Amino acid sequence: MTVQDVIDLPRAYRLRVADYRLLDESGAFDGLAKTELIEGVIVAVNAQYTAHARVQKHLYRSLDLACSAAGTGLEAWFEVSIALGPDTLPQPDIVVARNAPENAAIPGERVALVVEIADTTAKFDLGAKARLYASAGIPEYWVADVNARTIHQMWNPDGEAYAKRREIAFGEPVGAMSIEGLSVATTSL
To answer: Structural domain of residue 134, as residue ranges?
Structure first.
């Protein structure tokens, strides 16, 4: 499209990851708590408070120790971006992945598990984010719902959804369904 072209209806411009990174590096998002690029759209997310941080800290530590104990070659990562195509760069609360690159986003095909912590974002995390991760083929996805004190565990991605789901109450152990030998206690949540 050129400047001279007539636009019949207004259209949204979807950013590519390269565009988003350029804006981020220029300081365009400095006044925001956290942003992600979801299917070409910049999404600003809420500030994180202690309830969110407590669940995130305990799940991260548990997953990090469980990855080491299981001997799977996987590592747990805390708030790292994952590359899910040319226009999607989410930054989940916790990522379990193999062979993360030194100074870049983790490619989606290396991700085994994504965890989002939801205190104000449960609807988004269980809806749009679940579709996003399933579409990208992320083998397993957990949403730790701080208010409901429940972990929504999803696995077996099939198109835009996960074919298998279950809910585990905080305090019960959670065994990964797609990573053999990976289990975490949630009593500290």
So the answer is: 48-184
